[in-house]
Each structure stands twice: as structure tokens, then as C-alpha cells.
Amino acid sequence: MTELALPTVPTRGSARAGGPLADRFGRVATDLRVSLTDRCNLRCTYCMPEEGLAWMPREQQLTDGEVERLIRVAVERLGVTEVRFTGGEPLIRRGLLKIVAAAAALQPRPKLSVTTNGIGLERLARPLREAGLDRVNVSLDTLSPARFEQLTHRDRHADVLKGLAGAATAGLTPVKINTVLMRGINDDEAPALLRFALEHGYELRFIEQMPLDAQHKWDRHEMVTAAAILESLAPYGLLPDPVSRGTAPAETWLVPGYVDAAGQPARVGVIGSVTRPFCGDCDRTRLTADGQVRNCLFATGESDLRGLLRGGATDDEIADAWRAAMWGKKAGHGIDDPTFLQPARPMSAIGG
Ligand code: SAM
């Protein structure tokens, strides 16, 4: 298993006009995460306080047309090949189907996915598929409705399970599940969550809890590490995945004796963002719901594309600004650096 693999030799120069979203360390971003809203209908304790947050004023949020234009610039001029819609909760964005359809009409056609809490997905899965969405990641941290309510401050567990089933029926596959484990809350559920995923043909990904909560309560000593997660899955006898991880954030393992919905060997993934960072292979660029480019989840700076859009900039000028934003991407997220500062925006306003 590879440990930290940060690029160390910066090249000289600057973002190349007409080129892709390259940075000084030789990485090229091709995977765009688009946050469609900072609002959410759950209140996951590791993400935002029960009372919610001060939401972004509507006029600051990009319009559907502005989102569509920026995705077009990213795909047609900057080499983006994958677009993931996220938030906040992307399913509550009114224009979602229209935005997905516009992205699906681009050439070359990007791969399209959504990260969602699954509420409303039962109803939206088929229209999303018809609009051109390829697949979904659904967040589910527990199999217990009572724990779900404790964790999210909402009694919507059944809706999430229905959303998962609806996604599979609509062909939004592979359906992936994102799970964050917290010590003393749900860290006893890893084996059961994996069994649930295997039995339903979903692909489970555990994500290490990151310092991106609005409450700034994250504590490294309290987080459930990738090593602890793998230890709790030991009874499954996981085997190293022979397929290369590439730029994917998850390290994956094969689960002997199980196949996935496509009849392939079943896998489970662990995204060790904190203890096993993968910054050296990062290929992501992020667009917030108010039109700011972030070159890293943990970036403390942003580049304003909304101002350019609304100021009448051409597509070429927008593309150049995006390239410049990515050129400044740091080698690593720096969580282990004593000078690390949690970004001002919480995960819900960045787009996870
Ligand atoms: N609302 C959607 C959802 O629940 O999937 C999309 C946005 S949510 C911010 C995206 C993912 O980020 C979810 O899987 C959530 O569990 C995860 N997440 C949120 N805060 C996190 C944190 N502090 N550390 C790790 N993952 C986090």
C-alpha cells in the first residue's frame, strides 16, 4: 500500500494558454466537482450544526445558465472529462435536471455523477438517468433509523434506502455508498454496512472524517482512521485490488466470495484523506455554488469566476482564469503541517 506520495519538484513557468488545468507539480485536473447549492436537508453532525448555517444569498448563487456555461468551458476548453454534482444537497437544486441535460449534451461528453444524501432520489433517479446522469454516490452512515436521526437530526433513513434502491433500478450504476465513521457513534457498523452493500450490489466507500465541519470540532485523535476501518473489516479477508487505483481517492480491496451487480468481483474502498493522503495523484478542480474555483478541498484561497461571468468575460478569459487558479495548487493539503488552517468554508459550502 502506498503511503503519502506528494509531488516534490515544482516546474517553472505558468499556466499554458490553451492548455489543460495543469499545476506546477505536473498534475492535470480533469475531474470537476460542481456544488449546486450550499443548502442541505440533513444536519450531519460532522458537517453542520443542527440549526443549519447562514445560507448563501440567492443572488450570489450561480444561475443555471451560468453553471452550464462554466461546465461547457471546463469540458470544451480545459479538458475536463468528469463532472460530479454535489453540495450542500444537489437534489434540492431546482434546475438540476436541466443542468445535467446540458452537461450530457457537451462534446466530448463528460462522465456525469451526483453525490447525494439520497432523499428524493427514489423519485428523481429515472428523470436523472434520462437527463444523462451516469451514476450516483449516496451517503449513508448507519443502518439504524434511530442512529440516523441522532446523526442527521432528521427522521429520513427510510427515504435514503428507497433512494438507493431507486438509483439501482434506474441504472445509475455502480451505485456507491459513502460512509463516514465516528468513534463511539457508528464505528461498530463497518462490517454490517459492508454486508448491506454487498447484499444489494452497492459499492461501499468509507471516508475518513476531515477537518471541514462548520463547527470546527474535528479532532485528529478522535477520528476513525483507515487502518482502524480495515482492521474492523478483517473478518472479510479482504484482498489487495489488482486494478490500479489511478487518480481515484479510494484505495480498494476485493471482497472474496462476493460479486457486484455487474457480476465482477465485489470491492470495498477506503478514502484515507487524512492518514493516507493522495494529493500527488489529485485530478480534481472544484466550483462552488457562488462561482469560485477551489484548487483543493483545503485551499484557503479561491478564484472568482462569477465576477468574470457577470462582467462580460469571454470563454477564453474565463478559461485563462481557471487555468491560473489551478496553477497555484499546493503540493499537498497540509493537514499534518503545524501551520495548517481549516478553510473558512465548511464542506457543505465547498462541495464534497
Ligand atoms: N449532501 C450530499 C451528500 O450527503 O452526499 C453531498 C454533499 S456532502 C458534503 C458530500 C460527502 O461529504 C458526504 O458523503 C458526506 O458524508 C461527506 N462529508 C461531509 N463532511 C465531511 C467531513 N467533515 N469529513 C469527511 N466527509 C465529510
Describe this structure in words.
The protein is an alpha/beta fold. Helix content is 28%, strand content 18%. It is built from 10 helices and 14 strands. The strands form 2 sheets. A 12-stranded mixed sheet has the order 9-10-11-8-7-6-5-4-3-12-13-14. Strands 1-2 form a two-stranded antiparallel ribbon. The two termini are 25 Å apart. 46% of the residues are buried. Residues 1-11 have low confidence and may be disordered. S-adenosylmethionine binds at residues 40, 46-47, 86-87, 89, 115-117, 139, 178, 180, 207, 209-210, 212-213, 347-348, 352.
Secondary structure: number of strands: 14
Terminal Cα separation, in Å? 25 Å
The average pLDDT score comes to 94
| Rg, Å, rounded | 19 Å
Any idea what the shape is? Answer: globular
**Count of individual helical segments:** 10
Reading the helices and strands in chain order gives EEEHEHEHEHHEHEHEEEEEEHHH
Structural class: alpha/beta
Q: Looking across the biggest beta sheet, what order are the strands in?
A: 9-10-11-8-7-6-5-4-3-12-13-14
* Content of β-strand: 15-25%
Q: Report the uncertain regions.
A: 1-11
Q: What small molecules does the structure contain?
A: S-adenosylmethionine
Largest sheet: 12 strands, mixed
Assembly state = single chain
Helical content band: 25-40%
